[in-house]
């Protein structure tokens, strides 16, 4: 199995997706007339619009925060540090480029998710890639494969990985407390060690907290994300702003150096070196992993939203903004704090340790503690965000309330298991599963790109005319098959 999984990952991530995600991003950027640049302000307008009185979905702002809960994870802390270590400062430039074209992909997939959404068995809006693959392309069997792959990767295994990150960050301090309080010996005769007990305690605590939220369903997840995510991201960005102000004289050189290093015009930036090839490869990979544009994950929550204005494109704009916030803001915050610090990435000092060392340089002993707290919130919100995607997939597969209950219990079990186990092997399986769902999704949105273009032109035409865009599917009979007319007329 390991050999098969490694082969699939090599195909998906070495060839298909690295080039496919970039190509699709460039394709939609051109086909939609550089929409993410020309109508950047529209993204904020759609997020901040007055919520609809339609109670069958969540608000646009809630949809943004739930998708950010999933997008903004430990990769924004550890992944950026790894990209700097392996690719040098120029890797950050390529992360920016991936995000800028990925905004068009995110717009396209979330617009389709809105267009093809339907009322689920509980009355709430449901949809996502499975819906537009099934009803838009007429391929329900392919939509089922997509849904299974999403449940395995985002619903189960990635949540174990996030729980592992929380346990690794919290178990050591808890172990110290357990030993100091004489509750456990550092290593007892029967092999039970305080560190193992600490990880178990962390895993059970996170599982219980997860259960309290996910058993309330997507509305409860949306309420939590709406409150937690802005504070979580806001405090992290505030730390970066403080670091920038403290080193304001070096900031222009760092930012220009990132661009120059990406093309080999400057060898080192902030004491960090990297080649052009390594910068491009690692920046692109980490950017794609971080913002998830084209993966087919965020459209699952985009479909649940009640858009404002009442038009599929408005939720497309909202999710495009999510990519911008994740990569251009949060990932850049991590990168600049590392480059402005008196630390040098190495094979020994990378990932979370590098970010902690950088913040320790800026803020003293408070820095590593701040990173540990950030890891908890970034990872925990990813768990509940990922679960919301998987719940939509379970509903599509027709599993009903029983299937949702099984999923919730399985997610809690995977959180405990992930806190206790090394998850590298299973993570490879999740990569293959995510690679499969992303490949299916990319093919689907390209085949439906004509529909995206029609819907986008309709929105822009109405906005330019000074009106509040409203979509009526009866005005577009060429895209009517598969669209639920009761929602859009």
Automatic annotation (TrEMBL):
Subcellular location per the Swiss-Prot or TrEMBL entry: Cell inner membrane; Cell membrane
Signal sequence range: none
Keywords: Cell inner membrane, Cell membrane, Membrane, Symport, Transmembrane, Transmembrane helix, Transport
Top-level taxonomic group: Bacteria
InterPro entries to which the protein is assigned, alphabetical: Na/Ala_symport
GO function terms (MF aspect): amino acid:sodium symporter activity
Primary localization class, coarse: membrane
Pfam families: Na_Ala_symp
Protein family (similarity comment): Belongs to the alanine or glycine:cation symporter (AGCS) (TC 2.A.25) family.
Name of the molecule in the record: Alanine:cation symporter family protein
Natural source organism: Paracoccus amoyensis
